Amino acid sequence: MTSAMLHGELLATVREEFEHNVTQQVYVSDKAWQQVKMAKEETLRIINIAYEATGEERSGTALSQRIFETASKLSHLPTQAAMMSLKEEIRKLF
Known about the structure:
The protein is mostly helical. The chain has helices at 3-21, 30-54, 60-72, 78-93.
């Protein structure tokens, strides 16, 4: 699989997963749902940055390695902030 093929698959998967879970927004606050949306957008951004640095002709393995390298430079993953927000909200409810 080329970098371009993996890039397309990753973007589609992240978007599909978000769309699959979009009905969950009725169960959480607007603030928590915004965190989830922001996590999705930041994840897509990480994938795109890694793809631009890798190039479309390289292997999918090279892209995945670049994604991990890009993500490792962050103080926290975008999904971590969303998960913390959701857990905090759930603790308040139960």
